[in-house]
Amino acid sequence: MALSPHHLIVIGTSAGGMPALVRLIGQLPGSLPAAVLVVQHLAPDSLGAYLVDRLAHHTTLLCHLAQDGTPIEPGHLYLAPPDHHLLVKDNRLLVTKGPHENHYRPAADALFRSAAVYYGERVIGVVLTGMLHDGTAGLDFIKRCGGRAVVQDPHDAEFDSMPQSAIRHVAVDYTVPLDAMGALLQQLVQAPIAPAAPVPADLQTEAAIAERVVGSTEAVQQIGRLAPLSCPDCGGTLWEMQQGNILRFRCHTGHAYTADGLLLKSQHQLEETLWVALRTMEERKNLLTSMASRGEGQWSIQQEERVEEIKRHVNRLREFLLNGAAGEGRPGDNSQPST
């Protein structure tokens, strides 16, 4: 596939991301010989145009809310629209409403993989401040295709979870504080390009799934091993991906997860199920109490005994939930990344 003559800088960020982006792009000149594509985790009803205007006030890069089919040009910044993935193909933007990846849409992993497949060694992946794990697998995709990985120093990040996850799982090329990152990126886009590396076939298939070119069980079977797990978003079968350095899973519908992301989702589902069970037990207790009050003799005594038994179960379950045991004592993981 033909590569663009310029570089592509892809950035993923979540909580604390907008202030970090403002600081970073303020260091980049409008003459930058690279296009900059940004995924910032946003609520579905966010006003993307407002965020683009905010960025534009701090840089001479030309800033846009990404639109499907737009040619990718150096010196331009493209922000993923709320509730849409931002991908690339044939040197154009591809904006889709495909399945969530790692619970996100837009997802940094989806953008990074797409960029890695189509831009290869010309991609520079950047992970900034944020919570949870988005961008970690994406940096691994970029490295496998010959690109470079840059991560904000976790000590410099407002929220260090995303940078820490990337550093823990990927052979990152550069870990730098935000105020030094602009100079580093300018240096990288002016350096000689490494020889082209072959694009792994599994990443090409995953990119095609994200583009909705393919989406069958046959396609996923080519790149993964059937796992005894169900997709938490659609209930379909999950396959364990067998390439790369990150343990990942995906279903043929297109939902994709790192192992950490899948574990977090299962914790949330377990907690929700237990709260439903608690509500059901409370209702059962109330019904038994009413039955006992209307009955007489031994029958009424039996219902009262059943009420006392279910009260004990209710109290144990409530204590379990309120202590955070269903979430393995990690209440911070339940928070929604903010802008």
From TrEMBL:
Q: Which CDD domains match?
A: CheB
Cite the SUPFAM superfamilies for this sequence. Methylesterase CheB, C-terminal domain
* InterPro entries assigned: CheB_C, Chemotax_prot-Glu_Me-esterase, Sig_transdc_resp-reg_Me-estase
> Recorded E.C. number(s)?
3.1.1.61
User: What catalytic activity is recorded?
Assistant: [protein]-L-glutamate 5-O-methyl ester + H2O = L-glutamyl-[protein] + methanol + H(+)
CheB-type methylesterase domain mapped to chain residues: 2-192
**UniProt keyword annotations, A-Z:** Chemotaxis, Hydrolase
One Pfam family linked to the record:
CheB_methylest
**Annotated catalytic residues:** 14, 41, 134
**PANTHER family noted in UniProt:** PROTEIN-GLUTAMATE METHYLESTERASE/PROTEIN-GLUTAMINE GLUTAMINASE, PROTEIN-GLUTAMATE METHYLESTERASE_PROTEIN-GLUTAMINE GLUTAMINASE
Q: What is this protein called?
A: protein-glutamate methylesterase
